[in-house]
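hiii, so i know i said id send this last week but things got crazy w the move. better late than never?? heres the sequnce for the chain we talked about at the cafe, plus the structure i predicted for it. fair warning i was half asleep when i ran it
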Amino acid sequence: MILEATSDMDHIPKPTEALMFVIYLLSIGSLKDDECENTFNEPRGILLSRYSHATQQALINVKYIKSLNLTTLQAYCLFLLAARKHYDAHAFWILTGSAVRIGQRLGIHRDGSSLSLSPFDTEMRRRVWWQIVFLDGFAAKLCGAGYPAWLAKFDTKLPLIIAGATEMLFCCIRYEVSQAIRKANRFGDGHREAHGGPSTFLQVQTSLLKRIKRLMNWKQDFRTST
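okay and structure toks below
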């Protein structure tokens, strides 16, 4: 998508433009001050401000609140990821809440496998939705809002995990932790008995810990190989 867009800069779709700018923003954010100076001959702070403003303007141009485009929502989620340290906790929680509502409006809280979608579309929907789950859970924790009730009301499966080390490992670990928190809260006070009692709760907890441990081992293998 990005390569195709760069081949015709005068006719870039607005959702793709927003996605490109937020990728630039995240890329600059991953660099150190001296790396920015050496690579771009400009201070990191100025570049971050420039691409943050450009991303926000691109999201406004594409009318992200009303948009039914998955790429637009993907760009918005990545912007929230990049900006999470620059907003007041309660303001950030409100912004992640809008991502939840947009995602629900797009229907990505329902798994694509039950909607006869292609494997690719199904996987992309899962990745975006679980990024939203992580972001809103993170925001709720920051501002002390507690467990979001909507987390119990979706059936989107976790993104597929390919055996071995890939660039998706870090995201997959995040998703697994989000799933663990979600399931743990389902077995919270007043709910354990309805879901099978303490023994079932411990079984779920043990299973999730094993999955996360396996992912962590893959992550270590990935670091070693690179």
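btw The CA atoms of residues 2 and 163 lie 27 Å apart. thought thatd interest u
miss u guys!!
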